[in-house]
Design a protein that fits this description.
alpha+beta, two-stranded antiparallel sheet, 9 helices, 11 strands
Length: 265
């Protein structure tokens, strides 16, 4: 009886120890993966931040990283294959597939003399009151570039919870002269329940767009002139608030959208 008890006891102990070792091994196998993934995400975030704030411009055709002066002159040394591969890898890590077009835009902005900067408190407070962004449940922003003429180009990240909608978009903010009033316009046949509660009187008529008068200006002549520039453009929302002109897309930032907006400025 004692022998049987001892055998059973030993077998039970052996099973417990084996299970414990298996669990410990599994835990050891999981932990490095979790740590590795965390470190990889931190590394990508650091590389993205460094890449955005890098004053050098990446040329996708030659794989070179060059200064603004070199870009303007059109003369620079070609990188070695090792340097080219390194720069391509940095760009690949810094950008996901959806962000490659945005990355090309950010390179273009740096080439044009824009600098990566944060919006200040006054700018954020103004944007928080804008019709363009208050139509969403929540918003934030990531990349922001400002040039010497104080044109602000940034990427708001907007959310509509009821529609499970989240998107990074392109927004351009410029100062205009001799404008008054507060107007918002968007493509016709767009349902906007928020703006429907405002005055929906079309003091200004723009082909292909609906114009909402939020505050009528003392002289709408110049406001009409500014807003009518966008009549042939698709997929934009435009807000004119006195001397502040805001233009926003519905899609991820890209060079094509920025260039067509820039031409109208």
């Amino acid at each position: 009886m004692d022998i049987v008890f001892i055998i059973v006891f030993v077998l039970t102990l052996f099973i417990i120890i084996s299970n414990f070792n298996s669990g410990a091994k599994a835990a050891r196998e999981r932990t490095p993966k979790g740590i590795k993934e965390k470190k990889q995400k931190e590394l990508i975030k650091e590389k993205q931040k460094a890449w955005i704030n890098d004053d050098l411009i990446y040329d996708p055709e030659t794989g070179a990283k060059i200064t603004l002066e070199q870009a303007q002159s059109g003369v620079w040394d070609l990188p070695s294959e090792e340097e080219k591969a390194k720069h391509e890898e940095e760009q690949r890590i810094s950008l996901n597939e959806q962000g490659i077009e945005a990355g090309h835009l950010f390179e273009l902005l740096k080439e044009k003399g824009f600098k990566a900067k944060k919006l200040n408190d006054e700018q954020i407070e103004f944007l928080e009151q804008s019709a363009l962004l208050t139509q969403y449940d929540d918003w934030g922003y990531t990349e922001c570039f400002i040039n010497n003429d104080e044109m602000v180009v940034f990427s708001p990240y907007v959310k509509l919870k009821r529609l499970h909608y989240e998107e990074s978009q392109l927004m351009v903010w410029v100062k205009v002269n001799h404008a008054s009033g507060h107007y918002f316009m968007e493509p016709k046949n767009t349902t906007n329940k928020l703006l429907g509660s405002f005055i929906n009187k079309e003091d200004i008529k723009v082909e292909n767009y609906s114009v909402y008068t939020l505050k009528k200006g003392f002289d709408i002549t110049n406001a009409k002139k500014i807003l009518k520039k966008f009549s042939n453009e698709k997929g934009l929302q435009v807000e004119l608030n006195d001397n502040n002109l805001l233009i926003k897309t519905f899609v991820t930032p890209n060079r094509k959208d920025f260039e067509r907006i820039e031409k109208l400025m």
